[in-house]
Amino acid sequence: MSLLELTVRNVKRNFRLYSIYLFSMIAGVIIQFTFTSLMYNKDIMDALQNRANFQTGVGIASLVVFLFIIFFILYANSFFMKQRKKEFGMYLLYGLNERQITRMVFYETLIMSAISLFTGILIGGLLSKLFGMLLMDLMNYNQVISLSFPMPSIAATIGVFLLLAMIISVQSYIMLNRVQLTELFHAKQKMETPVRVSSAWAMIAVLLLGMAFALISSGKGSVFWQDYATVSMIAVTIGIIAGTFLFFRQLAGWLLQAVSRRKKYYEGNTMLWTSSLRFQIRGNTLNLTFISLFSAAIMLLLSFMTINYKVQFEAVGRNLPNDIAFESLASSTNNRIDSLIRSSGHEVRYHLTQEAIVAEPVSDMGPAFENPEYYTPYLLLVSEQTYNGLMQERDPKQILDLQGEEAVTLAQGSDFAQSYAANRQPEFKVKTDAETAFRIIEKKDYAYLGWSSDPVRSMVIKPAVLVISDEAYRSLREHADKKSFEIYGIADAGRAEELSKQVHAIVTETPGAYYSSFADVYSKQIEGSSLMLFSSGFLALIAIFALASVIYFKQLREATDERMQYTILRKMGVDDRQMKSVIRKQLLFVFLPPLVLGVCHSWFIIKYYILDSVQGFTGLTATVWGIMGVYFLIYVLFYVSSTNVYYKIVNENP
């Protein structure tokens, strides 16, 4: 019998085991092809305003997808090879050498890759249309997506899986050469030994996790993060990783040991499921730690990208609140731009010409404007009347009422916007022809002019604006340098990219002139955040598949190893109901703690470092809990599926 015939016979004989591996490969092909095909879809590319950025983003995300797929498939192959160690031992006993067995595995991989490629590309092509429509919906583009099977995507997917076939062969060869023949025959007979646990190490696990959660919940405005950020970051990382590891290695074992010392330990089926878990702790510690941290990473990634996507629609308007704004130029140039805007097809809702005084800051800019490096080195002093005139058109809720030396700093993007009590109002000095001191009554997370922008570079720098009372403005105006700005509100500003390019070209004929346009950033930000959310969704999908494979393959192996023990229990009179109860309790102890820890890790980080930074946006907390709820439901399905598979395997004849 040739190696190829032996390979085909193996596939037919062990179809159930092969089907698990085959499913993993098909899932990998579907994800790889579906994602890469979007980059070559003509309908999608026609709809985009920033094609080069999209292709770069998809290229980077494709690389990450590829790395995830490699991990996913190699983990599945590792399980597959371990399950067949006894079979390989027989082949070695019959005279085959490691190279021949490796070649046989390579043939098997090629056969499965061929099946996976055909099935995965077919399903992936159908799904690419669905995902393409979803991507266009995320970007708010009304574009019809046609069904397509781009040849570059097919070629790339085939190339990826041929490379994987070679990597799998190398992995298989290494695994075969690292074990002895006797190990191959007795691979499934190795028994775990209970871990020695101590209450001291269990307490250290609680203290490490408590320290990490306490540091995170202190918030980034606390002294720990303001003055000792690096040390705090290291402490949190150690606390989460080491604390999670010791939680499963020591605390879980200590709890099981405590249960075993109870008087009612021998009543019911408690002894059956706890004794099995105590023996599995050593082998499960790394897996459970990985599952907890991986679950936290999945929820954190999806929550962050979803929040970023939801925030961008409003954040672009906050960063660039004016549809078109530019520094007043010569009258002829202003009239030329005005004619261009009014003939563009975008209805002009309002046009204001507003004046500001140019001043130099004497006081430190830091307290008044967070991250002063993002602002112009000079200040624009805007009168209360001028500011309120624009707010009447843009947002009446932002209207101010100032008296005397009172002033408000417009620090858009500030994490620490605040109003100051009368006895705590900081002094801020500016210089025109002479120094003038103002009392800052509020640091406002709002923009008057917004970032200066560029159709290519997007946001460049933002003007530092101080709103002062009308009487203070009048007293400074006579002997100060002044600038005027033309501010337009137009209809459908998000689609005004071409108009913005034309106006920008005219304004920049005057070097250093201020220009800002909502359209310059809107399409880039929305397309970028949509692509990041879409890509993170794919990565989360792969990660969930990888997580499912870790859980499923581990439970499958343990169920196979414990088949004899359950056969003995059945002979001792344990009925099906009791066996199912034992399996459910045993697996619940494996599934529930990683989920709880994963949710805690991700929630603390999301709550105190993401949600607290975007408090002005509504509905985000509910979105995060929605993501965690969906993940919880998926995890419940993993649990139910694992209990059913576990029960079926232990009921088979050993």
UniProtKB/TrEMBL annotation:
Entry keyword set: Cell membrane, Membrane, Transmembrane, Transmembrane helix, Transport
Topological relation to the membrane, as annotated: Multi-pass membrane protein
Membrane-spanning intervals of the chain: 20-40, 60-80, 109-134, 154-176, 197-216, 228-248, 286-307, 531-553, 587-610, 622-640
Assigned GO CC terms: plasma membrane
Superkingdom per UniProt: Bacteria
Single GO BP term: transmembrane transport
Domain ABC3 transporter permease C-terminal: 60-178, 538-648
Signal peptide feature range: none
Keyword hit for 4Fe-4S: no
Coiled coil: none
The keyword Membrane belongs to this UniProt entry's keyword annotation: yes
Cellular localization per UniProt: Cell membrane
Main location: membrane
Family of this protein: Belongs to the ABC-4 integral membrane protein family.
Protein name stated in the entry: ABC3 transporter permease C-terminal domain-containing protein
Taxonomic source organism: Paenibacillus riograndensis SBR5
